[in-house]
Each structure stands twice: as C-alpha cells, then as structure tokens.
Design brief:
By secondary structure, the chain is α/β, with parallel strands linked by helices. It is 44% helix and 12% strand. Helix 1 crosses helix 2 and helix 11 crosses helix 12. The radius of gyration is 24 Å and the shape is globular.
Length: 430
C-alpha cells in the first residue's frame, strides 16, 4: 500500500493516466484513461489501494477497495476459443508475435485504390512550445479554421496536451472541435468525427486509435442526418424530457449543411406522431437509439411496422438533402489536398502512429500527414535524450529551428522498435 501511495504521488499524472470525473462543481471519482484510445474506461479500477491513493491525492472521498476474485490474461482467454480470426489495418507490425502466440498467420489485403496520402518527414524542435507554435503556424498556412481551408486533424497523446493545443489555436482566433477522454466530450464523438473532414474544420483528438469511424472528406451525411432526425423526434415528444437529457446535446444549426424544407420537416413530424401512437409514453432514450439504428442502418423488410417505414423514408430524405451539398464540398476539399493529419508525439507503439496517419487518405482520397516533435517529448527524454540535447547545444540550435534530419527519425524508429520488443518479451512471459 505504501509503495502504491508513492506511485500515485510521483508516477501518475492527471489528464494523462487518469481523469477526474465531475458532477457539476463536485469531484465524484477517478476514471482510468486508456493509453491506446484516449477514452475513459468505464467501470475499471486500479487494485491494491492505488485507486484510493489517487482519490486521496485529488481530494475525492475515498471509495471502498475492490477485491479481485479472478483474473485471466488475454492470451489465455483467446486460447479458449477453437477458432480465432481478426482484421486490422496495422497487423503486419505484429505478424511474428501473432503467429508465435496464437498460431495465426497475417495475410495483407491490397488496398482497393492506390494510396494517395503523402507522409512528410518528422520535424523536431528543441522545446515542446516551439513544436506547438510550428504546428499552429502550419494550420494557419493551410487555411485551418477558414470556410475554404483544409480540414486538419491534430493527434495528441494526453488530455492536458490536447487542451494546450486548443488554447493556442483559440489565441489565434481558430475555433476547434475537441475529442478527448473528458466525460463532457465523449458523448459527442460521432458528431465531431462526422464533420472532421469538412472544409476548414480543425479537430484536436487524443489517440484516434480504436475510434472505429471513417473521416469522410466533405463530412458524413449519414451521421448528420441521424443526429438531425433524432433532434426533431425529441423536439416532438417521442421521449420524456428526463430521458432526452441523457442524450448528447444537439449541435447548433450551423453544424448541419442545409436547413430542412417543409416537406421533410412534415415527414419527420408525421413519423414522430406515428412513433408516439405505436410506442406510447414510456419510450426510453436507448429505445430511440435502437429505433434510429433500425431505420437508418437496415434495409426495408416486409414485416416492418408503419412507424419504422415512415421514419426510414423521412431519415433517407434528410440524408439525400445533405449528401447533395456535402458531395460538392468533398470535391473542394479534395482539390485542397484532403485531410491534413498532424501528430504532436510519437507513441511507444508504431501501430498507434500508423493508425493516426491512416485517418487521412482513406479509400484513395488525397491527404497529408506529419509529426511535429520536440526533444522534450518522453520518447527522447527517457531513451537517450541527453545525447541529443548535447548535440543541439554544440550546434547552437535555436528553439524555433526545425530539425528535419533522417538521423533523428531513424533514432526514434529504433527507440520504438526497442520498446515494442521489450513489451513483446513481457507478453511472452505472461
């Protein structure tokens, strides 16, 4: 317990390893942040008093210590299944381990269209502030935040860093969308990702790995249509106000590409009235989400009730309206060069960096990626940063001078390989 108390004080950083959960102005708990996805892990707690030590450190009422009844490693769990398979865009990096551990061969599937993304070399600065300043300058240069500019996606490795980038952009008058582990942002994930490919939109996100959503150039008409349909159904009383409060807030009207005409509005209100008759007054928010999924993501069946048919037709009309406008915007964004992905840090695993880069240039679309690093980043500091700092002093490199040397990129690649090998050896022992 004493050792875990010391760990909590010295090794765990707020908004990096964990997030403080708030209810209004009151701190009510500690949420563990997943290092790979940037999300708060619901219901997960550290054991052996570590969670309680962090609660005490943050001035939160200390909860009861959980007791581990049983535990199993992923390797042992997966080996219980007679058949195993999987699909991911970055499996080749771990092909050897997958074959040795699970006896699974990795087969690469060629892309349907040639990759048109340009991956620029990393640029490295002496300080983190200089790296952030260069990133902000690059966003301004490509028109980020302007109605006719390129969409930009900035990937960070922590909540604290994402909020620093947002503040730096706000100081330059650039409005951003923030997607991180903060509980207030998590419910808006689909809404933020749906418009991340629109002209001039700047999105700041912690670790885009595992988000499971494509960023479509010009915006996603399907998600926008679903959000608009849900909004009008809620306004027309298909669920109670208490249930409506549990849903993510409806975006402002300027979020949507066009206002709805009278015919579509009437069709949505007619569908809402039909739902109220069919489902009554006790419909829950989760039932509404299920209804929207059936209406927007499934094909029409012969046994579909009238309220589903009406809702499907109305939602399809909204989608068609948005699709026509967003398809024009898509061509504008493609002409500008597509989505520009910028990273602020290299991750310990190269797979996570590749997943961030891979958000751009999907399905043969154009795109660009570049990492803005600093010699103050953890990867440099922990693994041989002193030698690099001495070189910088010898050559009198100024803070704002970018170091775009292949040797630096190669050194980082070697560090990533060493770290991955270390973790691989640990997993072999489990």
């Amino acid at each position: 317990f004493v050792m875990n108390a010391v760990k909590a004080k010295e090794l765990f950083t707020k908004d990096v390893e964990y997030s403080v959960i708030m209810e209004g102005e009151k701190k009510v708990g500690v949420g563990i942040i997943d290092a790979f996805t940037g999300r708060v892990l619901e219901g997960r707690r550290w054991s052996d008093g570590l969670h309680q030590s962090i609660e005490a450190r943050e001035g939160i009422e200390v909860s009861e210590m959980s007791k581990v009844i049983a535990k199993v490693t992923y390797q042992s769990l997966f080996r219980q299944f007679g058949r195993l398979s999987g699909m991911t865009g970055t499996a080749m990096a771990d092909a050897t381990e997958l074959e040795l551990t699970y006896d699974l061969k990795v087969t690469p599937v060629p892309t349907a269209l040639p990759i048109a993304r340009r991956d620029y070399p990393d640029v490295t600065f002496k300080t983190r502030k200089a790296g952030n300043d260069a990133l902000v300058k690059e966003i301004i240069n490509v028109g980020g935040g302007e109605p006719d500019g390129r969409p930009c996606l900035i990937g960070t490795t922590s909540v604290a860093q994402s909020e620093q980038i947002v503040a730096a952009l706000a100081a330059k008058g650039i409005q951003t969308e923030l997607l991180n582990a903060s509980p207030k942002n998590a419910p808006r994930e689909s809404e933020i990702v749906a418009q991340a490919g629109r002209a001039g939109v700047v999105t700041v996100a912690t670790n885009m790995a595992g988000r499971g959503t494509d960023i479509l150039l010009g915006g996603c008409p399907t998600t926008m249509a679903r959000i608009k349909t849900r909004s009008i159904l809620v306004d027309n009383g298909v669920i109670s106000k208490e249930e409506a409060d549990t849903l993510p807030p409806t975006p402002v009207e300027s979020y949507f590409p066009a206002p709805l005409d009278e015919d579509i509005t009437f069709a949505l209100k007619n569908a809402a009235a039909s739902i109220r008759v069919a489902r009554g007054d006790d419909m829950k928010a989760i039932d509404l989400d299920e209804l929207l999924t059936v209406s927007t993501d499934t094909t029409e069946g012969p046994d579909d009730p009238d309220h589903i048919v009406l809702l499907r037709d109305a939602a399809e009309a909204v989608k068609d309206l948005y699709k026509e406008i967003l398809s024009e915007e898509k061509e504008v964004v493609k002409a500008l060069g597509g989505l520009y992905v910028m990273g602020t840090n290299r991750h310990e695993s190269s797979r996570i960096d590749k997943q961030l880069r891979g958000r751009s240039g999907r399905q043969g679309d154009p795109g660009t990626s570049r990492f803005f690093l600093s010699f103050e980043d953890d990867m440099f500091v922990i693994f041989g940063g002193d030698n690099l700092q001495n070189i910088l002093k010898t050559f009198r490199v100024s803070d704002d001078m970018p170091v775009e040397a292949p040797q630096v990129t190669k050194a980082l690649d070697n560090v990533q390989e060493q770290v991955e090998e270390k973790y691989r050896e640990i997993r072999e022992q489990i």
